[in-house]
Amino acid sequence: MEYKTHVVPVKKNIALVAHDKKKEELVEWALRHRDELANHELYATGTTGSLLEKKLSLPIKKFISGPLGGDQQIGALISESKLDLLVFFWDPFESQPHDPDVKALLRIAAVWNIPVACNQSSAEFMFSSDMMGKSHERKIPDYEQYLKSRPF
Q1: Burial of 64 (0-12, 13-18, 19+ CB in 10 A)
Q2: Which residues belong to the active site?
Q3: For residue 23, is it within any domain?
Q4: How far apart are CA 98 and CA 109, in angstroms?
Q5: CA 78 to CA 108: how far, in whole Å?
Q6: Is 70 annotated as a binding residue?
Q7: How many structural domains is the chain composed of?
Q8: 133 annotated as a binding-site residue
Q9: Between the chain's N and C termini, which has fewer beta carbons within 10 Å?
């Protein structure tokens, strides 16, 4: 696989997602990081987005609920290099009706090499990084070269 460089801007596009039993935890975390979050473009799935927008008093671009396709909408933006970070407080103790969508979202994040925080500790590490406040480069798959090399 060939790779190319993608420039991540100072003002990042951040997706915020949480399973039902983790929504309050995400809200509490986001309130602690409100000032930092205000410097970026925020995206979220349905209920989580509405809840965060109300509690943070910040604009959030909301998708439909995760089980109805919101996870896939976020995954599509990741694959288009339109999202830079994923903060996804998922519940490891609850079976989700949309587990395949969750797995697909996490897979897409890994394929496109974006940072993923799956709990408060990883989100704290991510947001304490000096990379949050500056532009940087990340390697992403160069599928154009890959597709050109395929003997279809």
Answers
A1: middle
A2: 71
A3: yes
A4: 17
A5: 7
A6: no
A7: 1
A8: no
A9: C
Residues 102 and 65: beta-carbon distance below 8 Å:
no
Q: Copy the structure tokens of residue 58.
A: 């910040």
60-113 pLDDT per residue, tens? 999 999 888 899 999 999 999 999 999 999 887 776 666 788 889 999 999 999
Residue 32 lies in a domain: yes
- For residue 21, the Cα-to-chain-centroid distance in whole angstroms is 18
Residue 5 assigned ligand-binding role: no
Give me the domain span that covers residue 94: 11-131
Residues 6 or more apart whose Cβ sits within 8 Å of residue 121? none
The response to whether 6 counts as a known ligand-binding position is: no
User: 120: domain CATH number?
Assistant: 3.40.50.1380
The pair of three-digit structure tokens given for residue 48, joined into one six-digit string: 């989580």
The whole-angstrom separation of Cα 117 and Cα 46 is 19
Question: Is 45 annotated to bind ligand?
Answer: yes
Exposure b/e, 115-132, CB count within 10 A at least 16 = b: bbbbbbeebeebbeeeeb
Indicate left, alpha or beta for 57 from its phi (over 0: left) and psi (-120 to 50: alpha): left
pTM of the model: 0.92
